[in-house]
Amino acid sequence: QSVLTQPPSASGTPGQRVTISCSGSNSNIGTNSVHWYQQLPGTAPKLLIYSNNQRPSGVPDRFSGSKSGTSASLAISGLRSEDEADYYCAAWDDSVSAVIFGGGTKLTVL
Amino acid sequence: QVPLQESGPGQVKLLGTLSLTCDVSGGSITSVNWWTWVRQPPGKGLEWIGEIYFSGSTNYNPSLRSRVRLSVDKSKNQFFLSLTSVTAADTAVYYCARAPNSGASYRSLDYWGQGTLVTVSS
Question: What backbone torsions phi and psi does residue B100 show, to the nearest 5 degrees?
C-alpha cells in the first residue's frame, strides 16, 4: 500500500489545465523533496519534475510542480494528446529510510 | 547520458532466486549516485526495491528487506539485484535507475533502464 496518495485517474480535453495531487506525511513530503515521473504506455518511467518544482532539460514548461506542507501537485497546462500517460509522485521517507511512490494517476486526454 | 541496461533470466522458478544485472555505460559507477532497483507488476504501480552506493552502502524497502540483496562490481561498472524465495507476486518488470546523491536533483531517479520482465513460474 502506497504511503503517498494520488487519485487513480484524471482527465481533460486538449488545451485544458489539469492537476494531480499527491498527499503524504511529515516523514516524507513534509521533510523531503517530491519528484514526479511520467510513464507513457509500454515505456520506462521518465523524470518529469524534480525537487518539487524543477524541470529537467527537455521537459516542456507546460509541466509544473508545487509543494505545500505534506502535499504536492503536478499541473499540466495546454493539455495535449501525447500527455496521456501514468504519473507518479515519489519522495524519500525518513521513517523507513526508503523511497516511497504514490499509487499513480492515469491521465486520459478526452 | 548514462544509459542503463538490465539483463537476466526472463523466468524464475517458484521459490527460486531472481538475479538481475544492470550495466552502467557512459558514466562511472563510482560517481556520486545511488544505484537503484524499481519494479512494476503487470498493470500496477511502481515499487522501490532498494539502492546501493559504490562503497557498498545499501537501503532496502522494508517489505522486501529479508529477501533482497544488492551488490556492485566496480571493475565491471555493474550492479546487481538478488531476490530470494520468489512467488507469483514477484512477477514484474524490473528497472534499474540512477539517483544522484547531491545537487538539485538529489534522490530523484534521473536515468532509467528500459526494464526487463521477470515471470515467476511453477
Answer: -60, 140
